[in-house]
Design goal:
With 617 residues, the protein is mainly α. The protein has helices at residues 3-22, 28-48, 53-70, 78-94, 96-119, 123-128, 130-141, 154-174, 181-203, 207-240, 247-278, 287-314, 342-379, 392-405, 412-439, 448-473, 480-500, 504-517, 519-540, 543-555, 562-602, 604-616.
């Protein structure tokens, strides 16, 4: 039977099923009967129309009826449970050799750090910084070597430390995209730092105190960084050793595998930040308690990420997953209303970004230099007290937080300009995606006039969202971690507000409905938010900045105040460029997720086809 005939014969019955599901009081017997009928149709559709929308439509109705009949709430979370009990352990088994390599590299670097500090005691100043070493020596002299963990309130410290730990772990993973070299560099650096750090305390006769304090949280933290490095190595190997696949296909598979590992590390890193903020400060806690916590943390990390996967595979309780390539290519027809998994979403998003990269880069190039100069003139006027290069490290950290959060209460024009720039950067990819929605093709013909009109009509919506995020981080810049958690929902709202309706309240209601229709899939986008945010911060505060400053130090005399002007303009230009390049990828990913959930919830494609058939009749 042809698909159109199948739909036509059963259309009325399916509409009755939908009406039944909308009723507040439902007859259980009728629901059970409906479930039997719909599963029969679904079975037929799976056999003859396996890759068609009608199967997805029937599957959605069957799931709704099943939930109403059996009322088993655990079914909703079965996917999440499977991830932790089977998917992630299977992935860890597949990357076990990369994990061993990451551990050996880190441990070898740790020994190098110890040896270097033994041979050159001042080496610790190079790795940790003179100010930190001096502060620690003062704490040791005062009889409290771990006083550094007591200097801030618990809440502020938690957000700051957790954000930094996520940044380091994600950096270890993301840098694997540079053919593993970046991941190896990060792993070696962290290993040397830990080794030098621990020997420094040994040389001051406070090794025991440091071990029971630092490794209280460090067991989870360092282990997570090693696992993240293994994920980065896995991703890099996809580029280096594609085997029979193309390099891009191999990279997609390995990156997806690494990302699954990174999702599993997020709770571990958050827990490590909690321990460091709330427990490590209690240095008078009995050693037996701290030692027990360290041992439990160690057994958990080794047990879950190493032993448990090995046992599951060897006892054949799980089968190793076969990685499939996304069923999309640049030459395939683009279907907006299509159910996509996370891998398809990322692949489609990168393809759209690549198609629109040139016009976005053109917009960026047009705006970067003038905006950099405007921001410079708004903020940095008095630099007479700047001592180059002694003040440069402090200033860079100040600029880094300033240009990301825009919190500069003494300069209202700067805060306004900063918010407007973010709004423009956010509206730009919405323009290209909305054109994609309208024309249903990836590549569009754009013009300055069309873009300007869209910007004029919609930038205020993005500005409103930006102001919400800025309100969150206003009190403390490190609350940006909290802001990242609400970004996916806010961008859902923007999509509904831009494409669905101009009424912000209706748009927000629709965004909430879609966001929580598939909460697990939606919250998976939180990881994408953290990942993209990490890439953004890594690029903005990377070794490139250090290299740039090093060149300035080599060619200019100390005290040259005009050097700071160069640094300021450089940082602002970097900020704008990276923002206009990174933000669109995230916006496209959220858009793909938005329309994927819409298709799952509303069966848009099938409804259009049924309406088209009725018109033809």
């Amino acid at each position: 039977m042809r698909e159109n005939t199948f739909i036509e014969q059963n259309k009325a019955k399916w509409e009755d099923f939908e009406q039944l599901l909308k009723e507040k009081k439902r007859n259980p017997d009728k629901l059970s009967e409906s479930f039997v009928e719909i599963t029969d149709d679904l079975s037929y559709a799976r056999t003859f129309y396996a890759n068609r929308s009608v199967r997805l439509y029937l599957n959605g109705i069957a799931q709704q009826i099943f939930r109403d009949v059996y009322k088993n709430k655990r079914v909703k979370w079965q996917k999440l449970l499977d991830f932790w009990t089977t998917d992630l352990p299977a992935t860890m088994y597949m990357i076990r050799k990369d994990l061993l390599l990451a551990f050996l590299i880190f441990f070898g670097a740790l020994l190098i750090g110890v040896f270097s500090t033994v041979q050159y005691p001042d080496f610790v100043n190079v790795i940790l910084g003179e100010e930190y070493v001096q502060m620690t020596e003062e704490n040791i002299a005062n009889g409290d070597p771990m006083a550094v963990y007591k200097g801030s309130d618990e809440i502020t410290m938690f957000f700051k430390i957790t954000f930094n730990n996520l940044r380091v772990a994600l950096m270890s993973f993301v840098m694997g995209a540079f053919f593993c070299v970046g991941t190896l560099f990060v792993s070696v650096y962290n290993g040397i730092m830990v080794g030098s750090f621990q020997y420094f305390f040994y040389s001051k006769d406070v090794l025991i105190d440091s071990l029971f304090a630092i490794w209280l949280h460090g067991t989870l933290e360092i282990s997570a960084i090693i696992v993240a490095s293994a994920a980065g190595i896995t991703m890099g190997k996809g580029l280096l050793f594609p085997k029979t696949l193309s390099r891009l296909e191999s990279f997609q598979i390995s990156a997806r595998r690494g990302m699954k590992v990174m999702v599993g590390l997020v709770p571990v890193i958050i827990l490590a930040g909690f321990i460091e903020s709330f427990l490590t400060r209690y240095t008078d806690m009995p050693l037996i308690i701290r030692g027990t916590l360290i041992l439990v943390s160690f057994l958990f990390m080794v047990g879950y990420f190493v032993v448990y996967p090995y046992i599951l595979v060897k006892t054949k309780k799980i089968k190793l997953p076969v990685q499939k390539l996304p069923e999309t290519s640049e030459d395939s027809d683009f279907e907006l209303f299509q159910i996509r998994n996370l891998g398809n979403i990322l692949t489609e998003s990168m393809m759209i970004h690549r198609k629109h990269f040139v016009p976005i880069l053109t917009i960026c190039a047009t705006l970067v230099f003038p905006l950099s100069m405007v921001m410079y003139l708004l903020v940095f006027k008095d630099i007479s007290n700047f001592d180059f290069p002694n003040d440069i490290e402090y200033k860079l950290e100040e600029y880094y937080l300033l240009i990301v959060t825009g919190n500069y209460t003494s300069n209202i024009p700067f805060m306004i300009a900063h918010a407007i720039i973010w709004a423009v950067a956010l509206t730009t990819p919405y323009y290209f995606f909305s054109e994609t929605v309208n024309q249903e093709v990836r590549k569009i013909d754009w013009s300055v006039v069309n873009f300007s009109n869209f910007l004029f009509k919609n930038a205020y919506k993005s500005l409103f969202v930006v102001l919400i995020i800025k309100a969150i981080v206003f009190y403390n810049p490190f609350l940006i971690l909290v802001a990242l958690l609400v970004v996916p929902l806010l961008l859902f709202w923007l999509y509904a507000w831009t494409i669905y309706t101009n009424n912000p309240f209706k748009a927000f209601a629709r965004a909430l409905k879609l966001f929580f229709f598939q909460p697990i899939d939606s919250f998976m986008m939180l990881f994408i938010s953290l990942l993209v945010g990490s890439v953004y911060f890594i690029l903005l505060n990377s070794t490139l900045s250090g290299f740039f400053i090093g060149v300035l130090e080599m060619h200019f005399l100390e005290g040259e105040t005009f050097v700071l002007k160069i640094v300021q303009v450089f940082y602002f230009a970097s900020f704008f460029t990276i923002t206009f390049i990174i933000v669109p990828l995230f916006v496209y990913s959220i858009g793909m997720q938005y329309f994927s959930i819409m298709e799952r919830a509303e069966n848009t494609t099938l409804r259009k086809r049924i309406e088209a058939m009725e018109v033809e009749e």
